[in-house]
Amino acid sequence: MLRVLMFLVPLALSIYAFIDCISTQDEDVRHMPKPLWAILVLLFPMVGSISWLIAGKKRSPAAEGWSGVRSNRDRRWVAPDDNPEFLKSLDDEKKDERDES
């Protein structure tokens, strides 16, 4: 079992780092161009993956919380009870139900 884990953990880390690297927007990549990071992760799986996770991508501080959108600070996720569009849609549904009955 330990032999399998010694193979699967680095493989999973490399796959995760590679997918994270290629799906990251260009403006969020630090220190090197994105294609160079991808090559580094593929050629040196452990070192490249750990380097990417530590230094390759701009990450927001955990204290800020997840906003739902990474790049635009103006567009934040809004709770349904604070979202006027959602509340209006509920009112419209109630009116439709009353009209049908």
Give a quick set of tags describing it.
elongated, single chain, 101 residues, mainly alpha
Short description:
The chain is mainly alpha-helical. About 60% of the residues lie in helices and about 0% in strands.
Radius of gyration based on Cα positions = 22 Å
Helix/strand structural class? mainly alpha
Element string (H = helix, E = strand): HHHH
Task: State the distance separating the first and last CA atoms.
Answer: 64 Å
Mean pLDDT: 81
Query: Mind describing the biggest β-sheet?
Result: none
Strand tally is 0
Q: Estimate the global geometry from the Cα principal axes.
A: elongated
Number of discrete helical segments: 4
**How large is the share of residues in beta strands?**
under 5%
Helix residue percentage: 55-70%
Uncertain runs with pLDDT below 50, 5 residues or more? 63-69
Description:
There is one protein chain. With 101 residues, the chain is mainly alpha-helical. It is 60% helix and 0% strand. It is built from four helices and no strands. Helix 1 packs antiparallel against helix 2 (34-43), helix 1 crosses helix 3 and helix 2 packs antiparallel against helix 3. The chain is elongated and about 65 Å long. Residues 63-69 have low confidence and may be disordered.
